[in-house]
């Protein structure tokens, strides 16, 4: 249950549209509910603005379906990550509203679709070093979009051909936050952070030959970046990068709204 649903529920009680006992029954699931092998944090949307996200790797199909059905019952949007295609097909049979992307392995449930963004809206720029980094880059980009953010993409712009990322300079300069997704040596993050004035989130991927140690080499490169303003998430954690970027963009937009209110009150 999110803030809007809670407000509507309380107004319905106030206006006599539903009985108090029914409202109490709906609120019974707060703050968490036991289902199968999980304890769902039903209170998270009220605290953080986003329902609990389901990490499906390692879960059985029945576990994933049970969890998603329960979350979907009480929320307007639900996100599942690391969903195998076989699991996604089974979920779609039980929950027809589910939308699955095989590249990012994200499965989304949304009651309202996002409207196109105005070009003045703050945005995140998602970069990928190579095509092999696309699954992680798309996980980051689509997580941001699911959370209601504007996203620009520039893929396959790794440092092996530095002119490719330099060709994106204008969009990089105008971005409010950059997510840099790269494997191998992970140098793209330092390059991006050396060009822009906004924060940069480095996402190391497990793409590369043996000496990249399944992402450890790019992780260390990003942590040791000589460019400033870099934050680094865990290996292959596109979702984590997307959520962090969302929080930054949310703060920027709150600042804009506050400035507009101050301007309106002074005129």
Element layout with pairings:
Layout: H1 3-14, H2 20-27, E1 32-35, E2 38-41, H3 44-48, E3 54-55, H4 61-74, E4 77-81, H5 85-94, E5 99-101, E6 106-110, E7 123-128, H6 134-146, E8 150-154, H7 163-166, H8 169-174, E9 177-182, H9 188-193, E10 200-204, H10 216-223, E11 230-232, H11 238-266
Parallel strand pairs: 3-4, 7-8, 7-9, 9-10, 10-11
Antiparallel strand pairs: 1-2, 4-6, 5-6
Helix pairs in contact: 4-5, 6-11
Description:
The chain is α/β, with parallel strands linked by helices and 267 residues long. The protein folds into two domains: 3-110, no CATH class; 123-251, 3-Layer(aba) Sandwich (Rossmann fold), CATH 3.40.50.1970. Helix content is 43%, strand content 18%. The protein has helices at residues 3-14, 20-27, 44-48, 61-74, 85-94, 134-146, 163-166, 169-174, 188-193, 216-223, 238-266; strands spanning 32-35, 38-41, 54-55, 77-81, 99-101, 106-110, 123-128, 150-154, 177-182, 200-204, 230-232. The strands form three sheets. A five-stranded parallel beta sheet has the order 8-7-9-10-11. Strands 3-4-6-5 form a four-stranded mixed beta sheet, sandwiched between helices. Strand 7, helix 6 and strand 8 form a beta-alpha-beta unit. Helix 4 (61-74) crosses helix 5 and helix 6 runs parallel beside helix 11. The radius of gyration is 21 Å and the shape is globular. It starts with a helix and ends with a helix. The model has no long low-confidence stretch (mean pLDDT 87).
């Amino acid at each position: 249950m999110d803030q809007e649903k809670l407000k509507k529920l309380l107004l319905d009680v106030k206006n006599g549209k539903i009985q108090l006992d029914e409202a109490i029954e709906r609120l019974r699931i707060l703050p968490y509910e036991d289902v199968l092998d999980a304890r769902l944090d039903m209170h998270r949307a009220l605290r953080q603005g986003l329902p609990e996200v389901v990490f499906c790797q390692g879960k059985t199909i029945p576990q994933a379906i049970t969890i998603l059905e329960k979350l979907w019952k009480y929320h307007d949007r639900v996100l599942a990550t690391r969903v195998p295609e076989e699991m996604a097909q089974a979920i779609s049979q039980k929950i027809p509203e589910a939308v699955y992307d095989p590249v990012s392995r994200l499965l989304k449930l949304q009651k309202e679709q996002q409207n196109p963004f105005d070009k003045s809206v703050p945005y995140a720029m998602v970069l990928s070093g190579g095509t092999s980094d696309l699954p992680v880059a798309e996980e980051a980009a689509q997580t941001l979009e699911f959370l209601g953010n504007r996203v620009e993409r520039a893929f396959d712009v790794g440092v092996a051909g530095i002119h490719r990322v330099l060709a994106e300079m204008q969009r990089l300069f105008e971005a409010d936050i950059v997510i840099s997704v790269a494997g191998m040596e992970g140098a793209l993050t330092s390059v991006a952070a050396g060009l822009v004035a906004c924060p940069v989130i480095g996402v190391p991927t497990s793409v590369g030959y043996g000496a990249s140690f399944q992402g450890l080499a790019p992780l260390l490169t990003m942590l040791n970046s000589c460019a400033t303003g870099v934050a680094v998430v865990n290996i292959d954690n596109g979702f984590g990068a997307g959520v962090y970027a969302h929080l930054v963009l949310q703060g920027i937009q709150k600042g804009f709204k506050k400035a507009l209110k101050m301007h309106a009150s002074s005129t």
